[in-house]
Amino acid sequence: MSDIFDIFKRLESRQAPAASPSLPLTHIVVGLGNPGREYARTRHNTGFLCMDAVCEKYGAATDRARFQALTGEAVIAGARCLLMRPQTMMNLSGCAVADAAHFYKIPSDHIIVISDDINLNVGAMRVRLKGSDGGQKGIRSIINCLGTDEFSRIRIGVGAKPNPDYDLADWVLSEFSASDMETLKTLFPIACEGIELLIKGQPEKAMQVCNRKG
């Protein structure tokens, strides 16, 4: 049976290249998650869920298979951006991000990653410009594949596991409650504003807008 990467290669070969827009592609915005319907509403898919809001706001769709990801393009804050949902499973997200960054020669400080964060309560959010992975394995993979931690992150709180004995993998792959999902959705428009400010080169303002304790 063909693996998912063989399927991506076949899809790419069937797709006509997009017309070259006048703007050069200068930024990458990545939503982290796991592919597959069974993961759609899980905590680990918060980046994918936020990417839904990004696509809606900027009239885009991540429906093209490239770089081991589903991709699309949008103009955000005057910049042409590649939107990505890696399809590698979370722990290998860096493979997709690095492929795209190398192809378009995008510097790491022009990459914005949206991810879940178990260290933040549901309803909390934080912008970081660099630093450790904080235990998030998708971020860890991106750091390893890019060879640097100097890329922006919008980290959205999904809450800590309910007790120390609860398996962490089970927790991040569990689904949000209806009330937590509604809380989460209120953050996505704010995250979009943060993305715009980061692209404009206003990280301090992005932090002022996005950072909240929940």
What does this structure look like?
- The chain is built from 7 helices and 7 strands.
- The chain has a 7-stranded mixed sheet with strand order 2-3-4-1-5-7-6, with helices on both faces.
- 38% of the residues lie in helices and 20% in strands.
- Strand 3 and strand 4 form a beta hairpin.
- With 214 residues, the protein is of the alpha/beta class.
Fraction of residues in helix:
25-40%
Morphology call = globular
The whole-angstrom Rg is 16 Å
- Biggest sheet: strands, sense, closure? 7 strands, mixed
Structural class: alpha/beta
Q: For the largest beta sheet, what order do the strands appear in spatially?
A: 2-3-4-1-5-7-6
Overall strand count: 7
Distance between the termini: 45 Å
N-to-C series of helices and strands: HEHEEEHEEHEHHH
Instruction: Give start-end ranges of low-pLDDT stretches.
Output: 11-20
Provide a count of the helices. Answer: 7
Summary?
The chain has 7 helices and 7 strands, in the order αβαβββαββαβααα. With about 210 residues, it is an alpha/beta fold. About 5% of the residues have low confidence.
SSE topology sketch:
Blueprint: H1 4-14, E1 25-31, H2 46-58, E2 64-66, E3 69-76, E4 79-86, H3 93-104, E5 111-117, E6 125-128, H4 137-146, E7 152-157, H5 168-172, H6 178-199, H7 203-210
Parallel strand pairs: 1-4, 1-5, 5-7
Antiparallel strand pairs: 2-3, 3-4, 6-7
